[in-house]
Amino acid sequence: MALTDHACTILLPSLVKAIREGAPRIKLEVSAWRTRAYEDVAAGRIDAALSAEEVPPSLQSEIIFNLDFVCIVGSALRMHTPRFALKQYLQLPHVLVETLAGQQTLVDRPLAQRGVKRRVVLTIPFFVPAIYAIAHSDLVLTIPRKLARITRGIMGVKVVEPPRELKAFPYFMAWHSRLAAEPAHSWFREQIRQAVATL
User: What is the number of structural domains in the chain?
Assistant: First the structure.
C-alpha cells in the first residue's frame, strides 16, 4: 500500500496490530505516496493507496476520514492568539512539508486560489521531523489535527487554530475494481477502516 507520511504515523500502529493479530503471515509493504501512486494501483503494482488527492474515476474509492489543520508554533515565536487571521498567518515564517511537487498541496492550493502564498523558510518531506525541528524555533508548521494530537507531547510547541480559509478535506482509500470482491483484499480494506475508527 502507498501512504502519505502523516497517515503512516496515525494509522500504522492500529493497522499493524490488527494484521499481526488477525493474519500474522501477511507481509505488509508500505511505500511513500507519490504522484504515480494511483497509476501503480491501476497497474497492480500496489493494492491500495491512501491520500487526500482526488481519486481518478478509473479506481474504486471511499472517504475513510476527514482531516482539518492546526498550526504548531515553535516556542521562540511569542503568540497569544487562539486563531491566526489570514493576513497574520501569511506574514509569519513557515515550514512547508512537501507533499507534492514543491508544495503542501492542501495548504498551498487554497491560498493560491486567493492569490496569496506563505513565507516559506524551510522545506522538508516529513511531518514528524518537522515538528521536532520547529519546537524551539520561531517557525509555524501547519499539520493535520489528528497528527498534532499524537505528537502533542513534544516539548516547546503550542497549537494555534489556522485561518478559517484553510478548510477540512477528505482522505481517500483507493483500489482497483479487480480487487473489489477478492476476500483477502476485502479483509484488508476492513482492517484499514477499523484502524481509522480508533483515531
Answer: 2
- HSE-up of residue 55 (Cα within 13 Å, Cβ side): 22
In a structure prediction context, what are the per-residue pLDDT tens digits for the chain, which is 199 residues long? 999 888 999 999 999 999 999 999 999 999 988 889 999 999 999 999 999 889 999 999 999 999 899 999 988 888 789 999 999 999 999 999 987 777 788 898 899 999 999 999 999 988 989 998 998 899 999 999 988 887 777 777 889 999 999 999 899 999 999 999 999 999 999 999 999 998 8
Cα(150)–Cα(8) distance, integer angstroms = 12
Q: Is 85 found in the same domain as 112?
A: yes
Structural domain range at position 27: 2-66+170-197
Q: Look at the pTM and tell me if it is higher than 0.90.
A: no
Same-domain check for residues 53 and 84: no
Query: What are residue 142's DSSP bridge partners?
Result: 71
